[in-house]
Specification:
It contains four helices and six strands. The chain has helices at about 5-30, 80-85, 110-145, 150-180; strands at about 45, 50-55, 60-65, 65-70, 95, 100-105. A hairpin with a 2-residue loop joins strand 3 and strand 4. It is about 60% helix and about 15% strand. It is of the alpha+beta class and about 180 residues long. The radius of gyration is 22 Å and the shape is elongated.
Length: about 180
């Protein structure tokens, strides 16, 4: 195959990998019954006038499976962190003890587990759309090339194999996450 086709294949593979990485990041933020610092990854704290990720103003730990402990690096940030968690609308009730903030993570109800499984499925579907868009872009680039029809057909078949592999990987990650969510 030509260098152009190899470049198009590499670009498609990179775009598909990006879709998988985004899926993994999104699945990590979906709560699966036990406490995790990733649950607070999207919380933005007002740090002296600028929105700053919680992880950059405090240590976030999980001392046990049902508790998240947040220890700010500056004591005067306790109130701001508490306010940011409430504004993030995660369904948590932070408790400020003057030293750090403690969040007790309640166990999930069956209905909530099903909602989270649907959310995970939606994220997987977004990732599949990203993979398919990468396939479409790659196929369009292949069609523009000045090579034989046989080489175009071989390249399109390679792109389809790549797509199938990435879709299978997405499905596998979804099955693992759904099992994690539904396990009591």
């Amino acid at each position: 195959m030509t260098e152009e086709i190899d470049f198009i294949l590499d670009s498609a593979k990179e775009a598909m990998n990006d879709a998988i990485e985004h899926l993994v990041k999104e699945l990590r933020s979906i709560r699966a019954g036990k406490a995790s610092p990733a649950m607070l990854a999207n919380v933005q704290v007002d740090y002296y006038g600028s929105a700053t990720p919680l992880g950059q103003v405090a240590n976030v730990n999980t001392p046990d499976a049902r508790t998240i402990s947040i220890q700010p690096w500056e004591k005067n940030m306790l109130h701001e962190i508490e306010k940011a968690i409430m504004l993030a609308n995660l369904g948590f009730n932070p408790m400020n003890n003057g030293e750090n903030i403690i969040i007790n993570v309640p166990p999930l109800t069956e209905e909530r587990r099903k909602d989270l499984a649907k959310q995970a499925k939606a994220e997987a579907e977004h990732a599949k759309v990203g993979v398919r868009n990468a396939r479409k872009d790659a196929n369009n680039e292949i069609k523009k090339l000045d090579v034989s029809d046989d080489m175009k057909k071989i390249a399109e078949a390679d792109i389809q194999k790549l797509t199938d592999n990435f879709v299978k990987e997405i499905d596998d990650k979804l099955v693992v996450k759904e099992k994690e969510i539904m396990t009591v």
